[in-house]
Structures are given as structure tokens and as C-alpha cells.
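Long-time lurker, first post.

We've been arguing in lab meeting about whether flavin-adenine dinucleotide would sit comfortably in this protein at all. Half the group thinks yes, half thinks no, and nobody has a model to point at. So I'm putting the question to the forum: if I give you the sequence and the SMILES, can you give me back a predicted structure of the complex? Inputs are below. Any interpretation is welcome too.
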Amino acid sequence: MAENSQERTALVIGAGIVGVCTALYLQREGFTVTLIDKAGPGETCSAVNAGGLGAGSCSPFSLPGLWRKVPGMLMNRLHPLSVPPSNFLPATPWFIRFLLAGRQRRVDEIADALLTVVSNIFEAYEPLVTDAGAKDMIQHQGRLFVYTSRRAFESGRYERNVRSSRGVEIEELDGDQTREIEPKLGPNVVHGAYQRINGHVVNPKRLVQVLAEHLVRSGGTLLREKVTGFETVTDGAPKVVTETASHTARLVVIAAGAWSRALAAQLGTEVPMQAERGYFMMLPDPGIRGPLQWNDKLLAICPMEHGLRVSSGAEFAPVDAPPDYDRALANLRQVDGLIPGLEMRELERGMGARPSMPDSMPVIGACPGHPKVLFAFGHGHIGLTLGAVTGKLIGELAAGRPTSIDITPFRPDRF
Ligand SMILES: Cc1cc2nc3c(=O)[nH]c(=O)nc-3n(C[C@H](O)[C@H](O)[C@H](O)COP(=O)(O)OP(=O)(O)OC[C@H]3O[C@@H](n4cnc5c(N)ncnc54)[C@H](O)[C@@H]3O)c2cc1C
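Top reply:
Settle the argument with this. Predicted structure of the protein with flavin-adenine dinucleotide, as C-alpha cells:
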């Protein structure tokens, strides 16, 4: 795919964390880059996440036996999993694939593949945040998983083993040891599991914006346009058509998060992606030391520069459907049962659509039938974690070099 220098032009669709990191890595490879977004950098899912950088997050979300728990989850209004009745049928094929991905052998294959990418995240972010002057936006305080029941602690054992058996260090703790790490936790915490290797971003939206500003300062172009389709050309990548213009480049990257499915379909590739929507609210931060995950309620809690972010939600609704804040906030407000005295004053709220694949793995590689179009989407729950690694891999593919990580497990035609 390497071209001579005057032909090194690339167009990246989507300025979320994946698109921005991809654009920066393409720029580092010598490409003249145009980044197109309908909303602006970091306005969608990449702005609303829990901030976690899961350097050990190699466990897929579908695990053996999960299918038995799904009906109970769907019946519980306070459970993060929800499927609006109108989306039951459209989402069924995705759920079948999701449950099949939870077979023991497949879990092992997926975890092995994910480990290769998650274990490189800090190295991949390093040059980007250094150049952008944003090194301090990535913190390394680990992640403390907390449990208020022995049952939740025991039922998390399988997933912890998936990680620890692959070398991810996890310290199992009793309630007092957990409170030593995070003294604001209440007396109802009976267990903890500390994963020191994890990091977090102190403001995910600002990170995307700072990286996009750096791209432009370094000669890149940022356009606020909505891509509506493609026009095939005889040589090179298809022309990218927006609501107001059309653009040509030698290379096109689709990094449009949960909207990528529709764009890929226009080029003849069907990917089984679902929008898995999640929600957050910001509260005043009482001085929480580092990211927490309350596993009994599946709430992520992260101290950020502008408050304490509480996030959750796995709502399988159409990507552009209006948010259901009533249900989501009822779920998030349970956080007051974990941190006594927490001031429940909502400073901000938001919703984002995760681009989720049924096997919990991203889609990275050339579009079938269009070698000059690369896919960089489908990062589900770990898109902030993987943004820079994916960008680096796309940069290597674009430069015509062998990728530093085997991307076969992530190929677009694996389904
Ligand atoms: C509540 C919640 C918590 C999360 N917590 C974490 C976490 O702790 N750690 C982690 O690693 N991940 C987390 N995630 C997941 C992570 O946020 C996503 O995987 C990631 O943001 C996806 O990034 P993206 O760049 O692929 O997509 P997006 O951020 O959605 O960006 C896609 C961009 O494409 C643009 N676009 C779409 N269609 C078009 C078009 N036709 N024309 C032009 N532009 C277009 C959109 O405007 C958007 O800006 C969380 C997600 C949620 C919802």
C-alpha cells in the first residue's frame, strides 16, 4: 500500500479517539491527512466513557454460562443491560453470535488475541500525548474492582482467571484491605481485586480535542461534514461523498464508531455490529483516589479533572434513538450505596453508543474488495484503551509494513 510521497494522502472518517489516533499515526508515517467528522472531535462515545485504560482488559464480555443470567438481567430495571422491545428482533442475530463467542475455547482465543493489543496501550499513546503536550492526561493509578457481596466476588472469579492466567497481576483483597486502597468506600465492601497495571484518562473528551488540535497544528485538516456515501473510482480509494462536498485521497479509513456499520455496508461488507449505549453522570468528587468498578452493580467510577464520573449501561437500542435517562440514572444513582456521604448533585450527564462486536474484538484491516479502504472500528467497551494501538496498526498497514501485532484475529471478514 506504500505510495510515493506526493500520493500519500489519507482521509479518516470519524474524529473519535480511534479516528484521531489513526490520523496522527498516518501523519507520523508521512501522510497528508484529512479528518472528517459530522459532529466535531470527541463529541460522541469517546467523550462519555469511564476513562479506563484497561492494560489487562483481555477478557471478552461473553463468558461461559452467561446465557443463563440474561433473562434475570433483562427483568431487573436497575440492571445495566436493556433491550427496548422494538429492537428485540433486529438485535437477536447479534445476541446469538455474542452467546456463541462465550464458549470456553473461543473465550481463550479471544483473550489471547486481545492481550496482544491491550498490553501495548501505553507505548502506543506515549508518542501521541508527548507530541501534543498532554502526557499528564494519562494517569497510572490502577483499577480497584470492589464487591459488596461474596457472591459477586465469587462469580467474578472466572473472568479474573482469564486475565491472571495470561500474566495480568490481580491482587485479591478483603474488605479492610480494599478500604486501605480507597478509604472513602463504605463498610459494606467485603472484597476487592486490584489491577495495578491499569491507567485512566482524566478527561476523555479533552484528550480527543487536544490530539485533534495537534493534528491540525502539524498540517492536518479537520472538516465538519457528514459522510453520506462513496463513489467507486477505477484507481485508488473510492471518492468520499459528504452532504456538502466530495473528497478524494489515496487511502480512506473508516473509524466512525457505531456508525461504521452503515458505511461499511455501502462498500459491500456487512459487519455484525450493534450500538451498545452507555450513560454517565458527573458528581462532585469527594477525593476518590483512583478508578473503581463496583462489580455487584456494574458501575464504573472514575475521578476526573472535572468531577467524579459514574458510568454504566448496556442498552441495545438503535444508534440514533433518543436517550432513556430515567432508566439509566436510576441505575447510576445506586452509587450512593458504595461511597457514604457522596454528594448526589448531578453536574453533567451524557450518553454514548459503543460500537460493539459480538466477539468483543475490534475490526482492523482492509475492507474486502477495496484494498485502499481500511477499517478501524468495533472497539466496544475498550475503544479508549485501544485507540492509539489501532491507530499505530493502521499506520503500519498504510505504510506497507508488516504490523507489529498480528491482526489476523481482527480481520473484517472473520464473521
Ligand atoms: C458509558 C461508557 C463507558 C465506557 N468506558 C470505557 C472505558 O472505561 N475504557 C475504554 O477503553 N472504553 C470505554 N468505553 C468505550 C469507548 O468509549 C468506545 O469504544 C470509543 O469511544 C469508540 O471510539 P470511536 O472513535 O470508535 O467512536 P466514536 O467516539 O463514537 O467516534 C466516531 C465518530 O465518527 C463520527 N461519524 C459517525 N458517522 C459519521 C459520518 N457519516 N460522517 C462523519 N462523521 C461520522 C461521529 O460523529 C464520531 O465523532 C465506554 C463507552 C461508554 C458508552
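For your lab meeting: Confidence is low (pLDDT under 50) at residues 1-5. The chain has one domain: 5-72+103-410. Whichever side wins, do check it experimentally.
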